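Render this sequence as a predicted structure.
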Amino acid sequence: MLNRLSRPTALALCAAPVIALLAVAGFAPLPFSVAQPGPTTNVLGKSDGKPVIDISGAPTRPTEGKLRAVTIVATGPDASVHLGDVLDGWFAENRAVMPRDAVYPTGDSTKEVEQHNKQEMKGSQDAATEAALSYLGKPSKDIEVDLQLGDVGGPSAGLLFSLGIIDMLDGDGSGGDVTGGKSIAGTGTIDAKGKVGPVGGVSLKVQAADRDGATVFLVPKAECSDAKASAPKAMKLISVSTLKGTMTALTNMEKGSGAVPTC
């Protein structure tokens, strides 16, 4: 003869495996990274007590305003991300949850990722220098440019490096500053021919720029929608695709005439 279980007892027995599963899921590491706005650095200033841009072989000019390279900070490839972290990231406006493989190559350790980012940064710096000197029509063999941004790696500061080099060597070409005295932030890779490419985490980078006082943000054209999603109404978003186009847009913005492509 079978004994009937009361309804509360039956529900408790059925719920037990679910509760156990949720408990395990809560502590199990998940294949995600959680990113948030990182620090910004004025490439016309200093980092770790040293000039971000150091130029020799040509006279430089004093600059005003700021060109802020922006970053994001993400949990490392060796870090454990749990269900609670993911849920917090999904519901927080200043965080983003991304597949770990989209942030770090599969199987890479923190040390390998750092080495990879340093190599990308070096390539980006070389391209930024070549693009800037080519824009100015100056021979690269006579001018040496040393770029450093502390522990920041990756290629996303390329556009800002090129603009900083141009500002220090020539300004806007008519005696003024590239920035027009403003605090301008931005992101974007750049190749030696001056083509600007997209990067990741733009919505978070816009938040970092706003936090640190930037009023203008330079956005790779393909990522305008991401920037608009988090930018305050007071921030001007300029859509960029080439170094020459960026310089034209900044000059026109300062003059108050001519085209300034915005997001």
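Summary. The longest helix spans residues 110-136. Residues 146 and 159 are 15 Å apart (CA to CA).
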